[in-house]
Write a structure and sequence with these properties.
heterodimer, A: 328 residues, alpha+beta, Gyrase A, domain 2, Cyclophilin, 8 helices, 31% helix, B: 327 residues, 2 domains, 6-stranded antiparallel β-sheet, 19 strands
Chain lengths: 328, 327
């Protein structure tokens, strides 16, 4: 078979200033993947660009474009190739991409959502107990019947410091996925960026509203499901299929790409009270602020000597912690 | 109405194309595993080809009609009987209130059987589709597979029942089943030279891959491909294995996910996003064959295909799933 048959890069835009090279990859007869950078890197700036171009392309209401699925450094376009030829789709995306000159100037709509969290609650402890009983007895990431001690160990800090770090940073959603309504949230404050390995193998059950971290990424489990992130607490509902509560009137899911979360600690009783007032009484009022996210401000914060000093200290603790913690 | 006596191994309500437009919310499209068999069953009974029908995987489904109806059975031959008398596939049959329909198990070829019912299956659409998403527990009949004592309602037939019975699918329009399913596929998005070597890509296309028992409505796992060769030593920022990538959206349905050395076809209820590379994509017009691949027995083979061929195949399939296929 000829080598050119495997060449799936349909077009490219060159690297320019803050923009990495943009690759347009064939991904199927109704799918196109746009990738930022030939060398994969983890940088939230790429996600800000993905979401900005995504919004602009969607606003064009292109006939034959079903949907887009943003990732941290990619965007997947799902389209009807009988209506929308892939070349036309690429032209439309490139037009918007070329309009966006400097990523530092991006300002985008970003809701700031305050969520209560009960650390070390009884429901998520049941999930860990079930895992140890049915999936992996003696799992090294389970200490005192839970994951939070292990998380502290990996990050070279105390359990209290883990809780403080979860609540200290805002968490940014690069896009929904994995399970209906779940978002992939990344720490916006790198000096509070917890990093932990994922379960090996994964769990078979996780309760609704569980909050977990895998790698640097935070996930809220919308419904009971499997999963592989380390568990440390539980928040309030983010999904309601019955759509009884006004928040879910338009659809069963809550999170949108570009949202930010901020956690504050409450008791487990308070969490249970809110479950009742979301699912049964449907009168709980969610704390949501409509806000704009200015990339320039964030970069200034990110690059400030104070933040970078914190990052350096954290990395040193994590390096030592990772050496001390058993691998999963 | 149809009252379930035995749900069998896995029987679900599915339509086509399923729930489109919610991938960015983590919701896969679901939909019939074999949309060709469902489409032809619907054509038999005078429905639109994408109307909801009953998908029987493996077999042993049994039910009693609580009203007169016209049905069409397609797919693998599970030796269906009506009141213990054999009934044919690929033609429409009038059934009466009180009749009991019973299926044995999958045949020498194929794995799934479909029942189309004149008027379709009447379950409430969820986000625009009647399809069941088993892994999310929503859609279809209460978000789950059918079980004893469930009662399915039917929609309104397009014509009177007597004029819908006795319709047959032409011999040449009956899909050809096999134990080696040739899936036309387009390379991408992660291929050679950057993710796999040319030899690695050649390996995927040149060999037959066994459908393993570890398969379900979200993923069809193929036998481990130990000879698959990667173009890079590791996944860089994404992980230690070269199949690791920073989480990206999966082109579902149809993407071939490479998890370590295991190729996995992501279909119906599968994950929308994840951290593994995807080497090829089964074209929309050939997805149906995956639904007939019998776990533990059958093989799939990929045939390299272009965008133009894939678009042409979509048009041909639309013609196929129409009254033009009636005898």
């Amino acid at each position: 078979m000829d080598q050119k048959n495997y060449d799936v890069i349909l077009d490219k835009l060159p690297e320019a200033d803050s923009r990495p090279e943009v690759l347009f990859r064939q991904a199927g007869d109704g799918f196109l993947q746009v990738e930022y950078g030939a060398i994969p890197r983890f940088n939230l700036v790429d996600s800000f660009r993905v979401l900005t171009v995504n919004g602009a392309v969607k606003a064009k209401n292109i006939k034959g474009l079903y949907e887009t699925v943003p990732g941290i450094r990619t965007n997947m376009f799902h389209f009807d190739p009988e209506v929308l030829p892939v070349k036309k789709l690429i032209d439309e995306i490139e037009e918007e991409e070329n309009k966006l000159e400097n990523v530092e100037d991006i300002v985008f709509e970003s809701r700031l959502i305050s969520l209560p969290i009960a650390f070390e609650d009884s429901e998520t402890k049941k999930a860990v107990a079930k895992y140890v009983k049915e999936v992996r007895p003696g799992a090294p990431n389970v200490i005192d019947d839970y994951n939070i001690e292990y998380m502290a160990m990996c990050n070279g800090c105390s359990v209290q410091e883990i809780k403080d770090m979860v609540c200290a940073t805002e968490w940014y959603n690069s896009g929904n996925g994995f399970w209906p309504g779940g978002g992939f949230f990344w720490p916006l404050d790198p000096s509070n960026a917890i990093v932990v390995p994922k379960y090996n193998p994964p769990r078979t059950w996780t309760p609704e509203g569980t909050v977990g971290i895998g790698g640097p990424c935070l996930y809220v489990y919308p419904t009971p499901t499997g999963g592989g992130y380390q568990l440390f607490g539980r928040t309030i509902p983010i999904f309601q299929f019955a759509q009884k509560h006004p928040l879910f009137k338009e659809g069963p899911t809550f999170f949108k790409a570009g949202d930010r979360l901020k956690f504050h600690e409450v008791t487990e009783d308070e969490i249970l009270y809110i479950y009742k007032h979301v699912h049964e009484d449907t009168d709980y009022v969610y704390d949501i602020k409509n806000d704009m996210f200015k990339v320039k401000d964030w970069l200034e914060f990110y690059n400030s000597p104070e933040t970078q000093k914190g990052v350096k200290e954290l990395l040193a603790r994590q390096e030592a912690g990772t050496k001390a913690a058993p691998s999963v | 109405m149809l009252k379930i006596i035995n749900g069998g191994i896995e029987t679900v309500v599915e339509d086509w194309p399923g729930r489109i437009g919610y991938l960015d919310n983590g919701m896969s499209s679901s939909g019939a595993f074999d949309n060709v068999a469902l489409g032809l069953a619907n054509v038999l009974v005078g429905n639109q080809p994408g109307e909801a029908g009953i998908e029987i995987a493996g077999g042993y489904f049994q039910a009693e009609f609580e009203a007169d109806a016209v049905i069409g059975i397609t797919g693998t031959d599970m030796k269906p009987t009506l009141n213990n008398e054999p009934i044919p596939l690929w033609e429409s049959i009038k059934v009466n209130k009180g009749d009991v329909i019973k299926f044995s198990h999958f045949a020498e070829f194929g794995f799934r059987t479909y029942i189309g019912v004149a008027g379709g299956i009447d379950v409430p659409p969820v986000l625009g589709s009647k399809s069941t998403c088993l892994f999310g527990s929503y859609g279809g009949y209460e978000g789950r597979k059918l079980q004893k004592d469930d009662v399915l309602k039917f929609g309104k037939p397009s014509k009177d029942l007597d004029s819908l019975k006795g319709r047959k699918i032409k011999e040449e329009a009956i899909p050809k089943y096999s134990r080696e399913w040739v899936l036309r596929a387009m390379p991408g998005p992660n291929t050679s030279p950057d993710y796999l070597t040319k030899e690695g890509m050649d390996y995927l296309f040149a060999n037959s891959h066994k459908v393993t028992l570890n398969s379900n409505r979200s993923a069809v796992r193929l036998a481990e491909a130990s000879e698959l060769s990667f173009a890079r030593p590791d996944g860089g920022a994404a992980g230690s294995h070269p199949s690791n990538v920073l989480d990206h959206a999966y082109a579902i349905r149809g993407s071939l996910n490479i998890c370590g050395n295991t190729p996995i076809l992501l279909i119906a209820d599968g994950p929308t996003l994840g951290g593994y590379m995807n080497a090829v994509h089964v074209i929309n017009a050939d997805l149906w064959k995956i639904g007939q691949g019998t776990p533990g027995r059958d093989f799939v083979k990929f045939a390299c295909c272009t965008q133009e061929e894939a678009v042409e195949a979509r048009k041909q399939q639309r013609e196929w799933l129409s009254e033009k296929s009636l005898a």
